[in-house]
Every structure is written in C-alpha cells, then in structure tokens.
C-alpha cells in the first residue's frame, strides 16, 4: 500500500448539512483520468487503498459518505439521492467533469442512482457485489432489513470499545477476514472509531444506515435507475457472502434471471473472495483494479 499512500491526501467538501471528508490519491499529472470510488453501508473511504494502489495511472477519489467516517456529523436527510447529490459536489470541488464510477455494496446502489440522475458525470460504471435488488422478504421493518442484511456488522454500531486493540480483536473473530488480515485492514478498522479511550465507538450513524437501507430496499430510486440504465455496466460479484459463506449475496441460482432482466449488465465473477475481501484483500483488489483499468481503456476510445 506504500505507493498509494505517497499519493494520498484528504479534502473536505461542502455539502448540504456540513463537510464531507474525501480521500484523494493523485495521478501522475493533471491529465490523469478520474476514478470515483463509493464505499459500502458502514464503511469509509479507507476501504479503497488496496484498489487505489493498483491504479497509479489514475486520480482516485473516494468520499466518506454522509453519516460515516469523518463525514458522520453531516446533518440532514440521507438516502440514495442525497448521496448522489453529494458525489456531484465532490466532483465539482475537485474540478472533475466526469469519472469512471465504482461502487461497492451499498455504494453500488449509490453509484447506480448517481449514474441515472447525473449521466454526464459518469464515463463508465462498475458495480461491486451490489446494485441489483437483494432477495428479501416483503414487509420488513428498517431494523429487520438491517439485521437480515448486515447482522453483527450493524450490531457493532451501538457497542463501545476500551481501545483500538479491542476493536481489532472484535473484527479478528469475524469469519470474513480469517485469511486476509493485513495492515491495510487494520488502518481501515482503526479509522472507523471515534471518541476517546476507554469509550470508543464506530463512527457510522445507525440512523443514517437505517434511512439508507430503507431507501435502498423499499424506495423507487434503484428500480428507476435499473429500468433506465443508459450505458453498459460491469457487475463484479464475490463467490461468498458477508460471513464468508455460500451462497453469496447474489447466488448462482438467482443471478442469471437478474442479468436477463437487465441486458446492459456485463457480469464477471471474482473467485476466492467474499463480500468484504473483494475490495479489502490483495486478491480482490487485483480483480477490481483490473476491471477498472479495462473501463478506463474503454472510456478513452
């Protein structure tokens, strides 16, 4: 990750309700193509350094979405349309006209809505283990949706930790990272904490997660964006789920029907990764970065 971090800086961008923290990995010159990376529901921009490290030819931009990371005190409503509006503000502040846009998990849904509402700002679109409707029972409350989709990942938002080490130990027990513990992962997890020892807690706002989850799973923004999909879009899927389990988020039984419904989607499966390690492991970052380089080349034609 050393190469990425020598290019790395942060910026604060004004949005409705406050300041959005944005990570930037500068490209080799002013003409470098831009890549906009959008993280998952309880993540931050530091889920992306392994991918950014593999894209030295690009200017890589990754915000902390409102309610997360160092954007956790941004006020006002959340939801996919609000996040899409924030992404416009980020590109405007950094003087970027358009970018290859990549979203992971909930970030894929945000990226999809962003591409629908602001098509001129998107060169190419990559959805990473997200963006298509999840297979959920009807009639769930917001808390039930969060519990079913995220489980212990969401439960930690109300927990307190005496030290960063305690928080890392909490995650070491998570099956998703049994094979992929790394300094990059530790930095990502440590960044998640706010407060003062011995009263540390995750930065992500549960209220914002709830608002986003309800919008994602019961609102119309996703169905509208999928119905109006304007450009060929690449979907990358992990072979295992949030707990490193099979079936994954998008099972082999369900995925073909989804792809037939949305013919502009091109699908690539990423082997030997789960929903987290598709971006938070060397194997996953290799695959995601290779896909992005392909999209950069296509956008340059």
UniProtKB/TrEMBL annotation:
UniProt keyword annotations, A-Z: Hydrolase
Domain AB hydrolase-1 residues, every copy: 33-277
PANTHER family: AB HYDROLASE SUPERFAMILY PROTEIN YCLE (PTHR43798:SF31), MONOACYLGLYCEROL LIPASE (PTHR43798)
This protein's name: AB hydrolase-1 domain-containing protein
Source organism: Microbacterium pumilum
């Amino acid at each position: 990750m050393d190469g990425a971090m020598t290019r790395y800086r942060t910026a604060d961008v004004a949005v409705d309700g406050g300041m959005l923290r944005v990570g930037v990995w500068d490209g080799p010159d002013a003409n470098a193509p831009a890549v906009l990376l959008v993280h998952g529901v309880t993540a931050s921009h530091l889920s992306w350094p392994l991918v950014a490290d593999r894209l030295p030819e690009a200017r890589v931009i990754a915000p902390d979405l409102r309610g997360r990371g160092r954007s956790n005190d941004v006020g006002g409503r959340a939801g996919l349309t609000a996040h899409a509006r924030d992404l416009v503000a980020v590109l405007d502040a950094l003087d970027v006209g358009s970018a290859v846009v990549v979203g992971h998990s909930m970030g894929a849904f945000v990226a999809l809505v962003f591409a629908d509402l602001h098509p001129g700002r998107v060169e190419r679109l990559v959805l990473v283990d997200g963006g298509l409707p999840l297979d959920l029972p009807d009639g769930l409350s917001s808390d039930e949706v969060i519990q079913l989709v995220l489980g212990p990942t969401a439960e930690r938002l109300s927990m307190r930790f005496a030290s960063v080490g305690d928080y890392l130990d909490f995650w070491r027990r998570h099956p998703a990272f049994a094979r992929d513990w790394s300094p990059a992962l530790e930095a990502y997890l440590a960044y998640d904490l706010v407060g003062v020892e011995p009263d540390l807690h995750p930065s992500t706002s549960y209220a914002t997660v709830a608002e986003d989850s309800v919008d994602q799973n019961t609102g119309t923004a996703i169905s509208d964006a999928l119905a109006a999909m304007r450009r060929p879009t690449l979907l990358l899927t992990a072979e295992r789920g949030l707990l490193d389990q099979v079936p994954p988020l998008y099972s082999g039984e369900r995925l073909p029907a989804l792809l037939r419904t949305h013919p502009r989607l091109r699908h690539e499966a990423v082997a030997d990764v789960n929903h987290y390690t598709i971006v938070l492991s060397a194997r996953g970052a290799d695959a995601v970065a290779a896909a992005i380089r392909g999209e950069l080349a296509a956008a340059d034609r």
